[in-house]
Amino acid sequence: GVPHFFSQQPTPQQLQSYYAASQQYQQHHQQQQQHRASPPASSPYDAPGSFRYGQPGEAQLQRLVQLQQYQQQQQHHQQQMAAAANAATAAASPRAPVAESPRGAASARTKKESASTGVKRRGGPGGLNKICGVSPELQAIVGEPTMARTEIVKQLWAYIRRNDLQDPNNKRKIICNDELRLVFETDCTDMFKMNKLLAKHIKPLEPTSSPCPQTVVML
């Protein structure tokens, strides 16, 4: 029959609106019931109580254990690969022995030779400290008839400095005075030529085939 809240006979438009509203209400009511019966899994209130309160279930514990084992296996595999790579690098490039530098080898060789010949140089027949005879011209400068060649050169340089016979512009050049002119037979010379010119004024005391050894004393 006609609903009681209609004061008069309803029009077809009113009846259509009434039925449409009724259908919408029924659909909404059904949707609410379905939502309550099977709520979406994404709702935080539908998760297991063990998960909500920080207590993982058995499936979650098993998954965590599997993940931890997988990470340990990966780490162990990486360590093995790194060790194999290091071993291959060490085998490919072995450490070569440290070669002795040429300078160090030459220095050691020079020291060895000096040690083996030092006695001969100091005390042998050809030693630089061997006493030699001095010519009369050179005796006027060094003051002794016999003297070792090293001492002769030392006394000669002392005489040159004492009499200021070095060229002020070139200290290696020697200006000869009357005494030096008798020895060197020139008006000037230098320290390199001087040692050669001294050879004929230094004679060995014993008759030998070789003259006394020469030495150069630098400034």
Automatic annotation (TrEMBL):
Entry-linked CDD domains: SWIB-MDM2_like
DM2 domain residues: 127-204
InterPro entries: SWIB_domain, SWIB_MDM2_dom_sf, SWIB_MDM2_domain
Region (Disordered): 1-55, 67-128
Residue ranges with Polar residues bias: 1-11
Compositionally biased intervals (Low complexity): 12-50, 67-92
Protein name, UniProt field: DM2 domain-containing protein
